[in-house]
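User: I'll paste a sequence; please echo it back and then give the predicted structure.

Assistant: Echoing your sequence first, then the prediction.
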Amino acid sequence: MSVRHGILAILTLGDCYGYQLRAEFDRRTGTASTLNVGQIYNTLDRLHRDGLVRPAGSDAEGHLFYSITADGRAACAEWFESATPRSSGGRDELAIKVSLATTMPEVDVQTVIRVQRAETSRRIAELDETRRSADVLDQTRLTSLIALESALASAHAELSWLSSVESLVAMAIATGWDIAVPLGTDPVRRGRPTKSR
């Protein structure tokens, strides 16, 4: 979830200060990890710079409140009305690990996949147990269940992906491909220079 848009969404309900926004974000999203308050204030600075929020005074304790502008409300509404693409950027550690394993002569990629599948299956069982024991009584519990369903869907997708990769690797081995990749011998144009003595 975009922290930027999450802050704007909360501010549509009324003026807030940084720590209050962090608490509301965590409460409303059911996330397991809390946001860093520095991230909240950095985001507020950028939102202010972009004209989406404005300072709205402070209270007796010195909390600086922010309010959403008309442009901020429009940006928030647009965010809610548009589809959110799944993140394709960044590094997927598991995909990198499995890809590397297929190219390393000393690594049994099928074992890597089997170990990951066992862990993912264990995680699914744990999440299923949490879901079975959950009782939807209030809004806070509902947001936690929404986050839980997302985690379950991701874990099931990971199992499906592992099965596909296992089939690809088995096919490659069955057709006699030498999937291990030796270290390249082509000279690299850039690199760290050696120190001269």
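The CA atoms of residues 44 and 53 lie 7 Å apart. Strands lie at 53-58, 64-68.
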